[in-house]
Amino acid sequence: MSTLLEVGGVEVPGRAWIAPMTGVSDLPFRRAASRLGASYVATEMVACAEFARGRPDVVRRAAVGEGLPLMVVQLVGRDPELMAQGARLAAEAGAQIIDLNFGCPAKEVTGGALSGSALMREPDLAEALVASAVDAVDVPVTVKMRLGWDDASKNAPEIASRAVARGARAITVHGRTRCQFYKGAANWSAVRAVKDEVSVPVIVNGDIVDGATAREALAQSGADGVMIGRGVYGRPWVATQVEAGLAGRAFGEPDADTRLAIALDHFRDSLKFYGDRLGLRIFRKHLASYVDNAPWPTQAEARRSARQALCREEEPARVEQGLIALWRDPDRSLAA
């Protein structure tokens, strides 16, 4: 099978995509993953209302793609006019693909905002949002969704069909309902109903962490590609690893020294992009994940203590020194 996927005329040279994740897929992370070979890394979820109002933090998250081979912006909202405006702003900023979020299960998104996966309870509005974005821009619009709101309303095939009829050029489906959040196992086979319903590329998402899970997800769903979410925490190389697995090529986990170099490059880019104070604060989630995923045969409690100590540091130089010391001599550092 070809490793290239075409999305509305945009060629994505890979079938292992990295999901949009709030607090994770900012520009420094996207650059790190892209340097390591990822073909598709979406922005954090961007609220159309704040984007349209020009909030600096929102614009900074969405409208910057320097150093990326492909710029994908994900938008969330429930007002068709604001969705159109957000899509236009994203396209003007250089977005080559615009993804609409019908899948976020977070209470702050589905509750008062009635956005994300809450839109799966409003098929007419979901369809209108797709139409407004498609009509507003010349770049392809895609949709990311869940199987449905709950087990009694697994309407992903209907939402996908209506979205494609309105011009959506690819559909990503997380194999859980909103009410499951991240509990239980992703139901990859349920995504096949969406694949059978539409002619555009379908991407399966949920619990994909390596080549083996990617192959199984594709086999069960019949999808054209996979999307990796939480599996990239502390492992920004994972999309390249999955691509190799799908192609039958060997690709081992990076050794300790390589992981240290990746973490340091990512950290320095965060400081450069945000400034020392904000860059350090934002990087802490990544820092914790790098430590959690480090290849040391150590006890969980010792690893947790080392992670907490590093994440409490307020000086970037001390964080870097501590990270290097931990990597060079984990037994000593973890025992301290």
From TrEMBL:
Domain of life of the organism encoding this protein: Bacteria
RNA-binding recorded as keyword: yes
Top enzyme category: oxidoreductase
A Pfam family that the UniProt record links to this protein: Dus
Sorted UniProt keywords: Flavoprotein, FMN, NADP, Oxidoreductase, RNA-binding, tRNA processing, tRNA-binding
Keyword Flavoprotein among record annotations: yes
Family membership: Belongs to the dus family.
Record-given protein name: tRNA-dihydrouridine synthase
Organism of provenance: Phenylobacterium conjunctum
Highest classification ranks of the organism: Bacteria, Pseudomonadati, Pseudomonadota, Alphaproteobacteria, Caulobacterales
